[in-house]
Design brief:
Organism: Glycocaulis alkaliphilus
Enzyme class: oxidoreductase
Family: Belongs to the tryptophan 2,3-dioxygenase family.
Radius of gyration: 23 Å
CATH topology of one domain: Methane Monooxygenase Hydroxylase, Chain G, domain 1
Shape: globular
Largest sheet: none
CATH class of one domain: Mainly Alpha
Structural class: mainly alpha
Subunit structure: Homotetramer.
Function: Heme-dependent dioxygenase that catalyzes the oxidative cleavage of the L-tryptophan (L-Trp) pyrrole ring and converts L-tryptophan to N-formyl-L-kynurenine. Catalyzes the oxidative cleavage of the indole moiety.
Helix content: 55-70%
Bound molecules: protoporphyrin IX containing FE, N'-Formylkynurenine
């Protein structure tokens, strides 16, 4: 008879710690009792567990995204573009994970979702403080949306701080100026809580960078990382919108918006506008 493949691992010769010492174990280190004890479906519907876990996993990824983004912005402020780029590269991978979650979610049909949607009341992704913080740190400053967090002090503080700080793009323009490029003073000092206004002079600055990449290599390389980040963000938004259309059609959202029509409006937004418009003029 031919030799068989093993069907379970032989533990002989291993020195496995059957009772880990020192109070620390896998579960305790990762505080799994809290994470795995945090799913509280409101119904007996099978798909509600998936709905909850997708959102919780997304919030964990958002937490890491913000952790990386805060550090990346701090590095740009300190003219340390290389470590900032490393963090943006990680953010790009996290964004891919987030976008992939739509593939799991779209295994839920309208019939499945409508069985528990009413129980969600007025709750909605609209009220994700981490998502709003991320949008603000990336430069999408829509102050009114912070108001949905008014009743949650911790969330409101997080979001409000992000609203008034210079965004990743603001800090990039400041870095470009420090590197010797001509950046209008209105882009370097302004009320950061206001939406960024695209400026022909900033586009001209990017034109200079893209026309002489050898001279402006660091700024050029960083700019391309920003374009990557925005494209990935847009892919998340588009997949959200299409998944929502597939599951609830053109119903109003539980958050009170028009639903898909609101999500489509967000698709026209630009985080780093001149990095896109400059491409036409090169
Ligand atoms: C069945 C699945 C889902 C449906 C039907 C859905 C639907 C919607 C709708 C209609 C809105 C617009 C606001 C409103 O009026 O409610 C919205 C916003 C939002 N959703 Fe979802 N969503 C789903 C899954 C998710 C998941 C998995 C996430 C991941 C965190 C998410 C995050 C968000 C965020 C962050 C917003 C605010 C977007 C913005 O203000 O630009 N959604 N969603
Ligand atoms: N806005 C969704 C509900 C929804 O998706 C949702 C509800 C509670 C917690 C998170 C949610 N996800 C994203 O909006 C709807 O209108 O069906």
């Amino acid at each position: 008879m031919s030799e068989h493949f093993p069907t379970s691992v032989n533990l002989e010769g291993e020195d496995i710690h059957w009772s880990p010492e020192g109070g620390l174990s896998y579960g305790r280190y990762l505080v799994l009792d809290r994470i795995l004890g945090a799913q509280s479906p409101l119904t007996e519907e099978h798909d509600e567990m998936m709905f909850i876990i997708i959102h919780q996993a997304s919030e964990l990824w958002l937490k890491l995204c913000l952790h990386e983004l805060e550090a990346a912005i701090a590095h740009v402020q300190a003219d340390e573009v290389r470590p900032a780029m490393k963090m943006l590269a990680r953010i790009a991978r996290i964004q891919e994970q987030l976008t992939q979650s739509w593939a799991v979610l779209s295994t839920m049909t309208p019939s499945d979702y409508l069985k528990f949607r009413d129980q969600l009341g007025q709750s909605s992704g609209f009220q994700s403080a981490q998502y709003r913080t991320l949008e603000y740190r990336l430069g999408n400053k829509n102050a009114a949306l912070a108001k949905v967090h008014a009743s949650d002090e911790e969330a409101h503080t997080l979001v409000s701080k992000a609203l008034v700080q210079p965004s990743l793009y603001d800090e990039t323009l400041r870095f470009a100026a420090r590197s010797g490029l001509t950046v209008p003073s209105t882009a370097i000092e302004r009320d950061w809580s206001q939406p960024y206004q695209p400026d022909d002079a900033v586009e001209a600055m990017w034109r200079e960078v893209y026309l002489d990449t050898g001279k402006w290599w660091e700024v050029y390389e960083f700019a391309e990382k920003l374009v990557d980040l925005e494209q990935k963000f847009q892919q998340w938004r588009f997949n959200h919108m299409k998944t929502v259309e597939r599951i609830i059609g053109f119903r109003r959202g539980t958050g009170g918006s028009g639903g898909v029509s609101y999500l489509v409006k967000a698709l026209n937004l630009r985080l780093f506008p001149e990095l896109w418009t400059v491409r036409t003029t090169l």
